[in-house]
Amino acid sequence: MGRYEVKQIKNLLDFNLNRFLEKSKEEGFRFVERLVNDYKDGSNTFNHFGEGLFGVFNEEGVLVAIGGLNNDPFSKEQYIGRLRRFYVIKEYRRTGIGSLLVTKIIDEAKRYYKILVLHTDSEQADKFYTSIGFIKTDFYPNSSHYMELKS
Asked: Where does the signal peptide begin and end (predicted)?
């Protein structure tokens, strides 16, 4: 694996996301498009307390993976965070980049939350998240997986 760097993204609109949008749409994923649209209209800019948007950049400084951390909008509990809009460009999968990014987001979540939830309906994503330690359950609203966070 080459040299990759995880960084917090302060302004998503500073990046050319055409490749991300194109690649995700080819796979039938619409959540990257929702990420961009929500960011543009201000409905989710990952800028509230306990939130953040993170990217993995390759040696050329190109964004190859992205994922966000939000307060869980489906829970009334303040101690639940949500992993959102997590996407790794297909040719970069199975290289450790996804694990690198999700580990960064989990570490960030530990600073603010006791539980981290997410939703996926993809079998491949289910295997990825459970391999990292997420538990598959529908216990939390609009979630397919959760993880108890320990500092």
From this structure: none
